[in-house]
Each structure stands twice: as C-alpha cells, then as structure tokens.
Write the structure tokens for this entry.
Amino acid sequence: MNSENRETVIRLRGVVNRIGGRTISDHVDLDVYRGEVLGVVGGSGAGKSVLLRSIVGLRRPQAGSIEVFGEDVLNMEERTLRALQVRWGILFQDGALFSSQTVAENIQVPLREYTAMSQSLMNEIAAMKLSMVGLPEDTAHKHPSELSGGMRKRAGLARALALDPELVFLDEPTSGLDPISASQFDDLVKGLQKSLNLTVFMVTHDLDTLKATTDRIAVLVDGKLTVGTIDSLRNDKDPWIQEYFSGPRGRAALSS
C-alpha cells in the first residue's frame, strides 16, 4: 500500500532537540503508519531515546510539532493527554519494573492509574497478559529480581500491553539478551504486532532485530533522519549508514 493511502499514527515536523548545547534532532520530519514496525537506529548518544521520549510527552522539544493519532501532544490539556496515553504502551530498557512490586502488581500499574476496575479483574488481566508474552502463571507472584533478563523484558512488555494499546514504544528491547533470548523476543514482538494489529516504534541497535521485525527503518545521524528499508539504506551515501548496513557486521547479520 502506498504511503498516501495509509493512516499516519505518528507525525513529526521540524522537531528540534538539544542537550547541553548540542543539537541531536535537527528539524526532524517523520511519519509512522498504522500497523507497521518502525525501527529507529543511530550511534550511541545520537538521540534515539530522546526522540521517543519527546513523542510520548516525557521531554518537550525545543521546536517542532508532534501529533499522535492526529492529536497535537505538545499543546493539549493534561486531561486530553491522559486519554491519549491510554492508547499506547511503553517498554523501557530492561523492563523498568518496580523492584518492590510483584510482576502482577507491575502489570497492574497502568490499570490502577487509568481505570477504576476491581482487583479481581486486574488479577485476571495480569494473568492474561503474562500468558500473551509467554511467561508461566507463577511469574505473577515473583519480584523482578527473581527473573532473568529475558523474563523481565517480557514482563515489561506485558505491562505495556495492559491497556490493550494500538501503539507500542520499545526502547532497546533486546539489549543485554543472549542471541537465543533476543531471537525469541523478536518473534514475540512480530507475532503480537500481527495478531493485535499493533503499530510499533522501536529504538534498537540490533541488526538481527531490524531484519526480523521491521517494515521500515529510521536512521538518526548528526541530528538528521533518513528513512527507508534495509535494501534502500544499504545503498545510502552517508558514511555512517553505509558502514552500519554494509560493513562486515551488517553484511553478516543481514545476509539472506
């Protein structure tokens, strides 16, 4: 389907982010379409996670506009923003689970914040989300410290899915995982994206994840964003992009 016929879920125009006097997002434009998995890559400190945080309202950019589901997230009342936030979920690095709470209680955090449902219903939803991400039932009563890195990621994803969102943000979802766990997590994300018709905005540096899950990739280099497919980006003239996708590691990871 041509981009002209697709619904735009996230729309950035002229977004500028500066940290310590350094511009890390330099008038960035980006459209993310419903139902796609968009991977966002760039070097360390390039501003990938800052861009994600700007979209979800955790960091206000110095300039530009950001629309999610057609709504201006930078200039709306708190009540309206809260209603919009119910439509997306976020998985931060390493799951970002609350260490003092059980996994079930972690999953129930957004349910408590945005709904008035009973505890018994929240327990049922937590159990359902654990099953959805492939975790055993008894995980609900464990604390994050009792879980492996891969299990914490899955628990964080279960929390991100607690409110049945249309849009999911993933920040380095496979970082710190061994290759087998990372591959299993890639399969999980792609399977959930298809079965739930999710739109996924994923910050990653993992070439295997990009190949396994993404429809398009946005590369942030020197504050500028270049968007394309793996094949088109392999032929890009920018030195960093060329090395990333066509260097030895890129060729090894992306070869058929």
